Amino acid sequence: MTQQALRLGTRRSKLAMAQSGQVADAVRRMTGRPVELVEITTYGDVSREALAQIGGTGVFVTALRDALVRGEVDFAVHSLKDLPTTQPEELALAAVPEREDPRDVIVARDALKLTDLPRGARIGTGSPRRMAQLNAYARSHGLDFETVAIRGNVDTRIRYVRDGELDAVVLAAAGLNRIGRSEEVTDFLSVDTVLPAPGQGALAIECTADNADLVAALGELDDPFTRVAVTAERSLLAALEAGCSAPVGALADLLADGQIVKEMRLRGVVGTTDGSRMVQLSTTGPVPETHDQALALGRELATEMLAQGAAGLMGERAQ
Length: 319
Ligand SMILES: NCc1[nH]cc(CCC(=O)O)c1CC(=O)O
Prior knowledge:
A hairpin with a 6-residue loop joins strand 12 and strand 13 (about 280-285). By secondary structure, the chain is α/β, with parallel strands linked by helices. Helix content is about 35%, strand content about 25%. It has a 5-stranded mixed sheet with strand order 2-1-3-10-4, with helices on both faces. It has a 5-stranded mixed sheet with strand order 7-6-8-5-9, sandwiched between helices. It is globular, with a radius of gyration of 20 Å. The protein has 10 helices and 13 strands. It has helices spanning about 15-30, 45, 50-55, 60-70, 130-140, 155-160, 175-180, 210-220, 225-240, 290-305; strands at about 5-10, 35-40, 75-80, 90-95, 105-110, 120-125, 145-150, 170, 185-190, 205-210, 250-255, 260-270, 280-285. Bound molecules: ligand PBG. The site of the ligand NCc1[nH]cc(CCC(=O)O)c1CC(=O)O has 9 residues, from strand 8 and helix 7. Keywords: Porphyrin biosynthesis, Transferase.
């Protein structure tokens, strides 16, 4: 008997096609079922101007979710850091596969590292989170570079450096790895320097919640630790009431003693884009055993950050 192919809805961008293709392979391996990619054009893909105006929150996600709800596709893959923190009731987050490298990186001219950039160097990024932390690092380390707001996909950003318009751009390691361009990286930024976006490096696999068989089948791809970590990170973001373009960094990681996992640490940062004011805190405790415990960890850290004035640092938007 031939099985009906599972339809995987995907954006057409190089990154989306790469990560959808990789998940399609994993689902084929895991379930033995054929998977076909169905391209969905999103509002953000059609109009750069529209994207700038509506601020980018979840635009790439919405069209895929609409196609799921309408039954046009069976499942979809998102970059988890682009997912809004509220989960629609009719959709299930069926799997969060093992996270890729969560770090940000720079791609600079002449193979330069961040600390080698000459005075007055221009670093492109569209992210207030990256600007805030890079500028704070420059202030505290006597560096003198300037962050410049840019937009565009990975290829476009790298081209700014190739064309000599900028000295460097900041990108996520995971995105470069997925599209096979990791050799472009000239410096991996330590998470002590730039804390990544909540969920960075992780993928989210969604299908409709009423499709129990598919929820279970896709669940085979879930990595429980990654799920707990990103749940805590996103809970922090939600509790700070910050949108995806807010200058919030968060990362949960495991503290191990040899092979034995001891605890989970959750770090969070909020800052003004000029880097002049930052609230950066961390909490360490037992690895959450339930979804609710992971949510509570994020909320608790957010409460502490808000008590230190985090809310007053988040009003800005990068221009
Ligand atoms: N902001 C766009 C975006 N959304 C997801 C990734 C790739 C990294 C990931 O999956 O977390 C990127 C590119 C980037 O930030 O460089």
